[in-house]
């Protein structure tokens, strides 16, 4: 497939990706296997991010895609995004309960009632595990802290849009410190993001945005987020020119996480946080959309950026 002026809709683009073998359907909307070429693009882009931030002095942290349930509850995620959360349940019964489970399974009944919640919640954003870890260390060092984190994440929003997966990878750089330090960090990455998208050869725009807060109170939070320019997104058309997809986000959380986790700067003030997030699958989908499915036919400048 080569990019054209006609923008394929979500289901059409998904069908093309499946026919090309880039995505492997498993029977659940938003859950896919990935081909070797797809993974090559993800890994190459991941390496580009590493090179961009190499001299920043970030501490690298890598977590499995599971979060301590207590930490999840303390994060207040459920106040804002209950519709997206996913929990891990497991069988915790004895032999009698097991026999009942097998009977339900054999008769086609709902067997999930025998499952009970564990102490693990599926990670909703790559940065969430780092805040309690940093808080447990005590006050931040002088100059604050920078963390590089990368994880699979889960959000319950099944869709036939390939750019809206339920399980996806997120790479983040998270800055914790004074308001001046974290705002400067976000401005630096906004410029890097624009430069990166330009070098990737994809059309894009950067616009103010808001998170998908839930309910009536959530609409007020969203409006406040936009009014204060707390969230920007780098948008690339993947399945719609009118509604381009957020592939990078640049977020200033103010003192939200600092207050929750009692994180303090070296000066004893409440720490502020900001992050830049990269939707790894979305960037890959944007590259396939605009450069075609044959990696060897991609522009030489893009191939050189990704693979050297």
Automatic annotation (TrEMBL):
SUPFAM superfamilies associated with the record: Class II aaRS and biotin synthetases
Keywords from the UniProt entry: Aminoacyl-tRNA synthetase, Ligase
InterPro entries: aa-tRNA-synth_II/BPL/LPL (IPR045864)
GO molecular function list: aminoacyl-tRNA ligase activity
Name of the protein in its database record: Seryl-tRNA synthetase
